[in-house]
Specification:
Layout lengths: L2 H17 L4 H7 L4 H4 L18 H13 L7 H6 L3 H13 L2
Helix pairs in contact: 2-6, 4-6
Length: 100
């Protein structure tokens, strides 16, 4: 592979990753329903509900999708997770990860 082809490949990979990057600000806007239980800054004031602030994005995405897909069951979380489209799951997870 020539240097020119390698450089082009790196640029394409970089562009494709940024095109799919989660939007933290959109995640903040979409987290409105989460605030009631998980707190305005992702810190819950109830021992029954976990803190979301600072959790890893991948972990949060996995858990939200598990509620959405029925692998995890919780009467409060399942309907909320089912209402989230794929990009909002990524955005909300990125937002909570950013609250370190």
């Amino acid at each position: 592979m020539t240097l020119k082809k390698i450089a082009l490949s790196v640029c394409i990979i970089g562009l494709s990753q940024s095109a799919f990057a989660a939007d933290i600000e959109a995640g903040k806007q979409a987290s409105g329903l989460c605030v009631a239980c998980h707190g305005a800054a992702g810190i819950s004031n109830n021992d029954l509900w976990p803190n979301l602030a600072g959790q890893k994005k991948g972990y949060l995405v996995k858990q939200i999708k598990a509620f959405r897909d029925g692998t995890r069951n919780d009467p409060t979380m399942v309907p909320m997770a089912k209402a989230l489209p794929e990009n909002q799951i990524e955005n909300v997870a990125a937002y909570y990860e950013s609250l370190k």
